[in-house]
């Protein structure tokens, strides 16, 4: 499956604070309160509340509240304010006496000429306003100590009451508005209630309107409103809000202010936040400029300097993080280096540059980059005091960089040091520290990484323990649950303890339940859980587990956040496995469709294409009932070749090695699935595997499986060639793997299987029984490692049965045969009839039962064997080659056992012959149809003759012998009748047949020295030919659905063949004679002619031919040279034997007599008869005699269908007639009298109709002759020839080389 997590995870960013949050939290506290005297800039803490604006009245008390450090003092202050609000004028304990108070009231009334009651009310209102504001401010401060939202709500309530006491244009209204707005901003950050921030913005706007343009507090008020707008933007991503905030900050900067640097910092944060949304590079450049200006304004040692450098460094990297373009990263690195020159020895900048170098390493894989990152982190650490809070982050980032370099270098010292850094970081935090959780997980990641490299289970146990400790520090967290579950699954794969797998599934389900239905992480969580269930299925073989995985992946596809290419691929993997388990073709078809869809969605440069291509190829390599089988394997090979070319330079060594191994497997599968006995696929697979091994020399996780695959293919290569060097290397490879694997390692069964297969080949070579015993022992060891429900256990049992069968043939111990039969029966019962493995299992069962029959002679055993063979042949999801060999074996067993199914088996086997050769070039087709199939038609015909089915005998003989050329003849079949009925279909077939005919005669083949591009081109040409053949077959089926065309281009039945009267001598058996005037086939036994007699006559004829030479240089006829023996007598005896034993019985049966006008007889010889001169048979002696020519005119045909093929139409006019003549009158070995032949041809053929080669003006060149042949009516060749055991390599010798038959 596609990996659902990595060892390092997301913890790498845990110690990198957000520039925006830190800027707001750390910088706003330096802004003076617009409501306080500039000499007293104290204000409420701004880390949660934003800016502060208030009134000058009562500010001293508010400041004292803010500076209070004890919650008990705040409680007392709040209580007194509440009590004061309940008192009437003059009742306050600290107030003056009543007489003095009323004297003051009278004086104020007199001075203002106002009624005393009005003055008294104004004073009471002022006292109420002051108390409400002081109470609200105290409650606000109390909230920061208690985190009790009710304090914040009460503060809002008190300020609302205060606001009701200061209507416009009250002098105190501006201060109350700004303080209420500040508290509402604080409450918004706690509750995310949109109404609070919107009201705060409105209140700040009202407060700003009350300040004159020249007011000294206007700058602070602009900052406060801008900050509130920025807070709204952070919650809503509304660009208008941040646009206005930026505009207000710029207006503020245009005014004089006490702390310009703080405004610059917050403005830079706003501008960069807008860049994060819009991606406008101008915003990023402005943010950098603003931060640089702020940095220049800060005095040396200012605590904000460190935070600003951190913010600036993150800003440098922001463009790269957005674009992922290396050019942006290079610019960020340059900016960081320049800043370091100005501010040297700054740990923040050193760490930022180190992280940038690590990012460049991730892009370029240049080891120097990660080396520099590590050096920079170490330098940063050396500058930090042991108690510096930033040391924690530097230690962690150094650990991450070492971890990353370990993946590149595989140096255990790197991962050991990374582990040490994380452990030191852990020592800096107490048990209650909020970052302890992250550090524990970082240590666990390092232990897990070291485990994957060394295989030491103690490291994995440590990782599990640390994750459990982290999980106990806080409520269940989705990420830590995932990591813990992943480690449990890793241990399960090594120890096979079901409790680990069940625990992992439970944790993944718990993590999934923590995510609400609308959480964007839910799609991936479903994928991870499904992946885990799939891995569990691979070990347990429990189909419900796999079904649950499929359901989860389908659910994931319904979510908008799902990564569709990943889910498509993973679902395809599950469906392919379910097909392997249950044999349902619909699962396999959907798997292939999903893989194709995944590839369509992934860009060409996406590294995930590697896994999708690999998965699709695995599905294509597994044939299905409705697949093209070999065409699917060809497609898999082409896909891998194409992706290897496309991904060159884009994939890392691991991915490329994986692709090479999969391509090697595909080539191996094609070799096994094809009837071609050629080793190009094997040699190329070996080459790819060796390349893969060089890419993963230091990675046992990938190296061991590749070694096992290489051993398997080398073993097959030995089987093909017999070269022991292949077998020796094949045996050494799995032994190397086994020597390095612990007993519980998951790769051990495959290595044992490979070694066992190699030992079987060694036994076949040496016939040493102990070798076979060792192979059986290894197979039993494999089975002992598998639970009874393991999905591939049945296949391993079957492999054991086949090995027991081999030992039975050696030792003849009935126990081995009995056990093998029992195993095969059990295995076959677990497979559906259309499961791809049904063919090979049933074939083996048939062989075993036939051996049982030969031992027991029980007819039931033979019947059961036939049933097994029949099941193998009917398995349409298996490759054609497997079904053919099963049918051939069935025919052998049934024929030798006199079973009545023999003819059925022969018919099935011969019916597969055309499909074996589909899509092959001419050389391969000839090899397929003569290797392993020679004599099949004759055996089938003989069986039919013994059964008295002479008509079927003729049909079988014709069908079996004509396969090689029948495809070409079909492609050349006239389509005149079809053109009248269905012209469009006829034209389509004509186009396809033309392309097929040209393609089938191609001679281009692969070469080990070919470039990947050339190899892909050859592969695609072969695939194109196979697709054309599929279109041809589909077209034939479409034609045969038309009325009157049901037998279009089908094999000729007897009634049709009888139109071609001929005699078919069957060597060693009989002759079959077809007569156009008779209905029945005439069977002529030849009791005096046997296979041995035929072979003896052929040997004599070959010896006589070897002594024949031209008697003179000018003589083109052949004469036997005088010899010391009786060659003449030998030749006469050969011809006499043919007459008496073969020809005379046939003529006697046909009642033929000598005639001066003899009829024509077409001879269609088979077997040894093809090398004997039947037409010259006779008794030749001085007293006369008789011969074939006295009775008939003899002609030869390769097949009966040849006589039924209409001759090409004559040229419509003489002008269209063309003739090609090729002579060889000169050269190293000139052919006599060919020039005279040409002169005689010139006497009869006009010059414009004649094309001549072999003359001084026109040499006989291959390319020119091939170009002219299609355009002429007659070709006359008068040149030397060269015979070859392979007929297709026989050739005419021309001036520039050999013109072969192929």
UniProtKB/TrEMBL annotation:
- From which residue to which does any coiled coil extend? 672-699
Gene3D superfamilies reported for this sequence: Tetratricopeptide repeat domain (1.25.40.10)
Locate the compositionally biased regions of type Low complexity.
Answer: 33-65
Residue span(s) of domain CHAT: 1133-1300
- A Pfam family annotated for this chain is CHAT
Region (Disordered): which ranges? 30-65
Domain of life (superkingdom): Eukaryota
Matching entries from SUPFAM superfamilies are given as: TPR-like
* Record keywords, A-Z: Coiled coil, Repeat, TPR repeat
Q: Where is the signal peptide?
A: none
Which protein, by its recorded name, is this?
CHAT domain-containing protein
Q: Which organism is it from?
A: Piloderma croceum (strain F 1598)
């Amino acid at each position: 499956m596609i990996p659902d997590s990595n060892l390092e995870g997301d913890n790498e960013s845990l110690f990198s604070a957000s520039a925006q949050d830190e800027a707001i939290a750390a910088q706003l506290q330096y802004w003076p309160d617009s409501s306080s005297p500039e000499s007293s800039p104290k204000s409420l803490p701004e880390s949660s509340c934003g800016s502060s604006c208030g009134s000058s009245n009562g500010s001293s008390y508010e400041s004292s509240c803010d500076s209070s450090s004890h919650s008990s003092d705040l409680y007392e202050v709040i209580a007194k304010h509440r009590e004061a609000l309940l008192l009437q004028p003059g009742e306050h304990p600290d107030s003056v006496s009543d007489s003095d108070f009323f004297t003051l009231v009278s004086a104020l009334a007199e001075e203002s000429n106002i009624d005393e009651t009005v003055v008294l009310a104004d004073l009471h209102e002022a006292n109420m306003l002051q108390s409400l504001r002081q109470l609200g401010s105290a409650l606000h401060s109390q909230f920061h100590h208690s985190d009790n939202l009710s304090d914040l709500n009460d503060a809002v309530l008190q300020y609302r009451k205060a606001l009701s006491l200061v209507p416009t244009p009250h002098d105190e209204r501006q201060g109350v508005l700004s303080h209420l707005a500040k508290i509402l901003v604080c409450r918004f950050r706690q509750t995310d209630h949109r109404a609070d921030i919107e009201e705060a913005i409105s209140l700040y706007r009202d407060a700003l309107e009350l300040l004159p343009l020249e007011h000294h507090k206007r700058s602070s008020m602009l900052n406060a409103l801008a900050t509130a707008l920025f807070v709204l933007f952070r919650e809503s991503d509304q660009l208008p809000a941040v646009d206005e905030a930026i505009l207000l900050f710029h207006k503020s900067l245009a005014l004089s202010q006490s702390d310009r640097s703080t405004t610059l910092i917050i403005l830079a944060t706003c501008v960069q936040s807008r860049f994060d949304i819009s991606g406008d590079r101008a915003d990023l450049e402005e943010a950098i400029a603003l931060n640089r200006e702020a940095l220049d304004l800060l005095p040396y040692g200012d605590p904000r300097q460190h935070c600003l450098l951190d913010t600036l460094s993150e800003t440098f990297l922001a463009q790269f993080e957005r674009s992922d373009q290396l050019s942006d990263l290079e610019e960020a690195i340059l900016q960081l280096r320049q800043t370091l020159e100005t501010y040297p020895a700054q740990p923040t900048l050193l760490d930022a540059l180190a992280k940038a170098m690590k990012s460049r390493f991730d892009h370029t894989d240049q080891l120097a980059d990660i080396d520099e990152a590590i050096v920079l982190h170490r330098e940063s650490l050396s500058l930090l005091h042991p108690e510096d809070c930033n040391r924690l982050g530097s230690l962690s980032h150094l650990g991450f960089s070492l971890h990353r370099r370990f993946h590149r270098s595989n140096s255990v010292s790197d991962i050991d040091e990374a582990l040490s850094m994380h452990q030191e970081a852990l020592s800096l935090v107490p048990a209650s520290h909020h970052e302890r959780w992250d550090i524990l997980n970082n240590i666990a990641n390092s232990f897990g990484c070291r485990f994957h490299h060394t295989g030491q289970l103690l490291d994995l146990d440590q990782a599990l323990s640390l994750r459990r400790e982290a999980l106990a520090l806080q409520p269940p967290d989705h990420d830590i649950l995932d990591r813990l579950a992943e480690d449990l699954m890793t241990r399960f794969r090594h120890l096979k303890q079901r409790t680990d797998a069940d625990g992992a599934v439970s944790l993944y389900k718990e993590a999934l339940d923590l995510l609400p239905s609308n959480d964007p992480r839910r799609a991936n969580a479903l994928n991870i859980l499904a992946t885990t269930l799939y891995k569990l299925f691979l070990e347990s073989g429990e189909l419900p587990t796999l079904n649950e995985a499929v359901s989860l992946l389908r659910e994931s596809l319904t979510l908008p956040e799902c990564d569709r290419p990943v889910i498509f691929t993973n679902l395809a993997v599950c469906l392919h496995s379910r097909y392997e388990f249950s044999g349902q073709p619909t699962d396999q078809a959907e798997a292939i469709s999903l893989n194709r869809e995944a590839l369509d969605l992934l860009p060409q440069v996406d590294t995930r294409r590697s896994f999708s291509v690999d998965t699709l190829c695995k599905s294509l390599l597994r044939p299905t009932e409705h697949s093209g089988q070999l065409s699917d394997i060809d497609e898999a090979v082409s896909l891998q070749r194409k992706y290897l070319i496309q991904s060159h330079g884009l994939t890392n060594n691991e991915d490329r090695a994986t692709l090479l191994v999969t391509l090697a497997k595909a080539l191996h599968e094609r070799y096994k699935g094809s009837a071609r006995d050629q080793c190009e696929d094997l040699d190329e697979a070996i080459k790819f595997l060796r390349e893969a091994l060089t890419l993963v020399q230091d990675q046992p996780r990938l190296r061991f499986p590749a070694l096992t695959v290489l051993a398997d293919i080398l073993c097959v290569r030995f089987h093909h060639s017999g070269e022991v060097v292949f077998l020796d290397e094949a045996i050494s490879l799995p032994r190397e793997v086994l020597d390095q694997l612990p007993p519980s390692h998951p790769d051990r069964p495959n290595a044992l299987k490979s070694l066992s297969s190699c030992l079987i080949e060694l036994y076949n070579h040496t016939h040493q029984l102990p070798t076979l015993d060792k192979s059986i022992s290894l197979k039993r060891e494999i089975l002992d490692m598998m639970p009874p429900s393991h999905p591939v256990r049945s296949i391993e049992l079957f492999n054991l049965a086949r090995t027991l069968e081999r030992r039975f043939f050696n030792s003849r111990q009935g126990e081995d045969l009995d056990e093998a039969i029992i195993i095969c029966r059990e295995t076959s019962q677990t497979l559906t009839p259309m499961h791809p493995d049904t063919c090979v299992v049933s074939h083996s069962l048939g062989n075993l039962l036939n051996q049982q029959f030969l031992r027991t002679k029980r007819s039931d055993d033979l019947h059961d064997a036939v049933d097994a063979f029949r099941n193998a042949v009917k398995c349409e999801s298996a490759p054609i080659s497997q079904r053919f060999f099963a049918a051939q074996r069935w025919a052998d067993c049934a024929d030798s056992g006199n079973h009545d199914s023999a003819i059925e088996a022969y018919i099935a086997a011969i019916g597969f012959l055309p499909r074996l050769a589909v899509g092959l070039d001419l050389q391969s087709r000839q090899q397929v149809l003569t290797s392993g199939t020679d004599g099949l038609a004759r055996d089938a015909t003989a069986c039919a003759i013994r059964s008295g089915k002479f008509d079927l005998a003729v049909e079988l003989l014709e069908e079996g012998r004509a396969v090689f050329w029948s495809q070409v003849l079909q492609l050349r079949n006239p389509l005149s009748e079809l053109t009248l009925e269905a012209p469009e279909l006829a034209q389509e077939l004509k186009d396809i047949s033309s392309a097929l005919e040209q393609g089938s005669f191609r001679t281009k083949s692969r070469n080990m020295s070919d470039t990947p591009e050339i190899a892909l081109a050859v592969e695609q040409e072969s695939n194109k030919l196979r697709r054309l053949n599929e279109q041809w077959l589909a077209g034939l089926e479409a034609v045969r659905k038309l009325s009157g065309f049901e037998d279009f281009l089908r094999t000729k039945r007897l009634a049709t063949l009888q139109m071609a009267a001929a005699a078919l001598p069957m060597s060693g058996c009989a002759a079959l004679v077809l007569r156009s005037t008779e209905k029945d086939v005439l069977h002529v036994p030849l009791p005096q002619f046997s296979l041995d007699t035929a072979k003896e006559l052929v040997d004599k004829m070959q010896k006589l031919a070897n002594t024949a030479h031209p008697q003179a240089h000018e003589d083109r006829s052949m004469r036997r040279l005088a010899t010391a023996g009786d060659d003449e007598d030998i030749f006469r005896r050969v011809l006499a034997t043919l007459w008496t034993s073969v020809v005379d019985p046939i003529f006697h049966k046909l009642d033929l007599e000598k005639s001066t006008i003899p009829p024509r007889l077409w001879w269609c010889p088979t077997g040894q008869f093809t090398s004997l001169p039947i037409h010259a048979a006779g008794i030749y002696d001085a007293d006369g005699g008789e011969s074939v020519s006295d009775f008939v005119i003899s002609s030869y045909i390769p097949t009966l269908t040849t006589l039924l093929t209409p001759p090409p139409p004559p040229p419509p006019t003489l002008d269209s007639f063309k003739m090609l003549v090729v002579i060889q009158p000169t050269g190293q070995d000139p052919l006599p009298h060919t020039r005279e032949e040409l002169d005689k041809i010139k006497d009869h053929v006009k010059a414009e109709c004649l094309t001549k080669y072999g003359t001084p003006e026109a040499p006989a060149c291959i390319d020119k002759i091939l170009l002219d042949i299609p355009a002429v009516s007659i070709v006359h060749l008068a040149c030397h020839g060269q015979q070859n055991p392979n007929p297709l390599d026989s050739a005419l010798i021309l001036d520039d080389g050999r013109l072969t038959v192929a």
